[in-house]
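LOG
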Amino acid sequence: MSENLASNDFQETNHETTFLVARHTKKTKTPTEGSNISSEFYQGISEEGETLVREKTREHVLSIIEQASPSSVILFAGASDMPRTKSTTRVSINELKSLLVDKQRDYIILDEKDISTLVDAKTQSTREVLTKLVKDNPNKKIILSHPLYLKELSLASPETGPRASVPDWKSGGAKEIINPYTAEVLKRNNNNEINAVVDWIENDGKLTTETGQFLQGPNPVGVAKEYISAIKRLEKFSKELFPNRPLVIEITAHSWDIDAFIAYATHKGELTKDTVTNIAKGRGDKASIISEFEFPIIKVTDQGGNLSYRGNEYKLNSPEFAS
């Protein structure tokens, strides 16, 4: 599998594809630090964050996998350039391996290390090996963790600066640099994040400070569209690898961006204070940004798509999904 996906058009399919678009778990104050509470080191996430992912994997992710079709391929397939996103994925897959250790009759579950042992780099590609593995096991659920770097999920944007390269990503990921725009939005909203997200939406990623300094942030509509682009081409790529198999695809990304994506995708491409607070409230009275390792569940078929989040069901009706 390539570490970076080329842009492609969406491929419609007669089979349902399920997406989990998760926020990363609780991060460390210093990006090079990480959790050491288990047998592996997880860069960029705290010990509390590792525990949280394991709990939510047991409580939510496992049930989604168990309810999927017996022939499903479950892919932990995408991350941003920040190490904490890939670490979140690794914790979840390792927890699933522990939970399903006695169910080898029904499941095959492989992480990146397992996959690498199956591939003879001199004569085989990862793509060829995984395609054959899935084809040879038509009646098993196959869970594969091989997160790809999806540049659209980067915290950097075309407006704010260059994104990490693939070599950077392979060697540890992007450097954690707080964008001055983001810092200013948080400051003027007293670190209230849902208010900061609304502010970002309303000022369209552009603001002038009290001292007259102009600051440029990511364009919120652009961010939402990039998330949709990533989802569509990841679906196409996965269908090409594993045709005629139901898919469950997990990607790990970032708050604010996911909130903007959900609101845009489910409100006909309208990204406003009202659409953001609508999805952020769910069935409650208080709005809040997406929490650590929380995720909307998206189901896409050739008849359209639906998104479930915080107890509500929405149609995917933005122009990109409606076309």
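LOG (cont.) second protein
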Amino acid sequence: MLKIGEFYEANEIAELAGVKGVRGLQCGIFVNDNNRTTILIQTISKEGMTENYPNKWDEESIGVLHYCGTNKGQTKDISKQSLESKLNKHVNEAIFPIHVFVRYPEQYFQYLGEFIRLPKYDETLNIDGKDIYLFGLVSKNIELTEMIIRKIMSISHL
């Protein structure tokens, strides 16, 4: 059983996500049909937040995460992400419970718990001519994750 705030190794996350080995953790959204779980991974690099998929925490509403949709499974010439692709659809419709992890540069993962889909916090960004969808999500355990989220937010402003 996962515990909020605990750290996990890449092989444990790969198993939970249902991917073969740690190389399978390249994407940020994983749907495991076997254990009926959706896993989101927010990656923090040594420079702070990644720019390709700028997942971000809401400055005003602690516990709210704006998580980028993925282009995986879509043609490269799209101008807007499809919310009907399997990964985006599972997040958008919260088909399975959504669990969030943060990947730190040292390749360990911290569990932030289960999140609830909140469309009122959705956003769209235009990055390199493509409309990227940011799903609004909120922690089910804000009191347990608040200090972790504040730490992540301070790292992302480096």
